[in-house]
Amino acid sequence: MKKLNKVAMLVASATLALSAGSVFAQSNENNWLNVDGTTWRTGDGTLCWRNPFWTPATANPNCDGAVTPEGPVTQAQPQPQPGATSQRVSYSADTLFDFDKAVLKPAGKEVLDELVRRIGNVNLETVITVGHTDSTGPEAYNMKLSLRRAEAVKAYLVSKGVPANRIFVEGKGETQPVATNATREGRAQNRRVEIEVIGTVMR
């Protein structure tokens, strides 16, 4: 009886070996193959069964990880990031206004129109408008004149769509000259309106 059981076990072992051989009797340089010639993979399909001849140098690029998709892989292009900006421009008051006036001239409106176009792609945080004068006339009068000119610039920018709550105005009068007031040329440089734009450029 024992002899018969031993023979039966041998037969069963031979049957299993033949059955296993039919599953992956073939192999390539790296991995076992199914009988239909496809690579034998793990249950989730992400890994291949390596045979004794597997080496990193000859590894199948479609194995040992997620299956490589067919065709070129399109890399996602990075989205443009907004960039902070701070720009300051200075306009001659003689271009913007007539002498001793705070009403914008046509030429003054044109230069402000150009400014509005330039900041069209800026998500505005703050616009600071500061008026300056030369030292001609009383200091208190010059202070008021510089403020009225800054306010005139603000009003025009608002009329062109710039949010009023983003614009701050200030008059400095003759307190911050950029040139000497002893010459005509120097006084002309001191009569000015400075506009600083702070925001984020949308690219």
UniProtKB/TrEMBL annotation:
Residues 60-88 are annotated as: Disordered. It is found in: Cell outer membrane. GO terms for cellular component: cell outer membrane. Coiled coil: none annotated. Residues 1-25 form the signal peptide. The keyword Manganese does not apply. Gene3D superfamilies: OmpA-like domain. Residues 71-85 have a biased composition (Low complexity). It comes from the Bacteria. Pfam families: OmpA. Residues 84-201 form the OmpA-like domain. InterPro entries: Bact_OuterMem_StrucFunc, OMP_bac, OmpA-like, OmpA-like_sf. Keywords: Cell outer membrane, Membrane, Signal. Its main location: membrane. This is Outer membrane protein A. It comes from Saezia sanguinis. The gene is ompA.
